[in-house]
Structure formats: C-alpha cells, structure tokens
Amino acid sequence: MPTREQKQVSLQELKEKFGTSQVAVMANYRGLNVAAMTRLRVRLRERGAELKVVKNTLALKAAREHGIEGLEELLTGPTAIAFSGEDLVAPAKVMLEFARESKIMEVKGGLLEGKVIDAQGVKSLADLPPREVLLAQVLGGMQAPMYGFAGALQGLLRNLVYVLEAIRKRQAGETA
Questions:
Q1: C-alpha–C-alpha distance, residues 104 and 81, integer Å
Q2: Does 66 score more than 90 pLDDT?
Q3: Threshold 0.90, pTM exceeds
Q4: Cβ-contact 14, 52 below 8 angstroms
Q5: Measured distance CA(174)–CA(105) in Å, rounded
Q6: Contact 52, 13 (CB under 8 A)
Q7: Where are the alpha helices (DSSP H) in the chain?
Q8: What is the pLDDT of residue 41?
Q9: Helix axes 119-127, 90-102, angle to 10 degrees
C-alpha cells in the first residue's frame, strides 16, 4: 500500500501532467500483462506521449485543481492515461490501434485542451491527419490564391506585350 508521501508525489506528477498536457486519453487496461503495457509505453514514447497508470481518486483530485470537471465516469476501474503536450493526435491513434490489436484494452475517453471528450471524440481525434499534413494543407490553401493571381498577372502582361508588338509593327509599316 502506498505511503502518504508516495501519494503526494503521484498527485504532484498528475497535477503537472494535467497542467502541461494538451491531450489525455484514458483507457481501461484490465487484462493486459506487463509485456503488453511495456509495448504500449514504448509506442507512446516514440510518438512523444507518456503513459501513466493512475489511482482514480488522485487523478480526479489533480484534474479538479486545474478546473477540469466531468471525469468521474471515465475514471472508473483500472485506468491508464496517455498524456501529450505537443501532438494532439498521436496518443489517440496509438491507444486506439493498441486497443484494436489487443482486443482487451478499452479506450474510455479523454481530455482535449481541458475539455472532456468521450470515446467517439477520441476516435475522431485519431482520424485527423498528422500536424505536418494539416499545416501543409493550410499552407496550400494560402498559396492557391497567390498562384491564381500570379497566373492572371502573367496573362495580362503577355497580352500587353502582344498589343505593344502589334502597335510597333503598325508604326513600322509591317503587316501582321
């Protein structure tokens, strides 16, 4: 049984994770062995996320201190939480993929920038393209009007050159 000091350390770690993470995905890990949990931790770490197995009462207390309410139904039974401060999509993708593969773990829901989301919300989050792809799409959308403008300007300049050339030929007495 954990001592009071160990609980305080765990509470502080959870407070820090809830404070610095933009996304947290919660899952019931009942039935997973140590080797499976280790594989899950490694996959998450490779994607910049971290897995914590939590005591539900401590997680609720840490979340409430950050003004996060509504986690009671997600924090029941054995709970593992994948935290990430940078990549919003990675923890959701990894946890859902692992749940599909293991057929044991169940994703319960999570937090997205301090707001509670259900399991369907986690699935929707996992379906988003990676950050780099989203940035490329936004950049492409911003560049498209510029390319259109450049093409139109180029066409106008080309027409101006044709008109000037026709005027030059007429003044020189040439026939077109």
A1: 16
A2: no
A3: no
A4: yes
A5: 84
A6: yes
A7: 4-20, 34-46, 56-65, 90-102, 119-127, 131-172
A8: 93
A9: 110
